[in-house]
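Severity: low
Component: inverse-folding endpoint
Summary: output formatting inconsistent between runs
Steps to reproduce: submit the following structure tokens with default settings.
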């Protein structure tokens, strides 16, 4: 016997380490968890395909809450990193990931600067 496998389109990580927690990341995590359930975006809901995990430090402590995500695009695994995330901005990201749409650029800090 083996565990049940749930297909995943993307994995969202919310830093809940001390500094981000001081900026509200634990409250953000719980709100996003509830939002993914309500909107049926969570991997264990019919039609859902997103995983959400608490994370230790993501290395951008002064800019929390910090959110990172890993997602499939074609045959490759890509990533995106965000700073000062709120419930609305994290749910906007989640909905884009779920639908396979272009990700929000606002608050994203892993892209090259011009």
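Observed output (run 2 of 3):
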């Amino acid at each position: 016997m083996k565990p049940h496998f749930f297909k995943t389109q993307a994995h969202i990580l919310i830093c809940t380490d001390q500094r981000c927690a001081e900026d509200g990341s634990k409250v953000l995590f719980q709100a996003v968890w509830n939002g993914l359930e309500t909107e049926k975006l969570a991997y264990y809901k019919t039609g859902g395909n997103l995983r959400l995990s608490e994370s230790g430090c993501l290395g951008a402590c002064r800019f929390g809450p910090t959110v990172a995500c890993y997602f499939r695009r074609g045959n490759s695994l890509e990533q995106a990193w965000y700073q000062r995330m709120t419930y609305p901005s994290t749910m906007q990201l989640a909905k884009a990931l779920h639908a396979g749409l272009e990700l929000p650029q606002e608050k994203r800090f892993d892209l090259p600067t011009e």
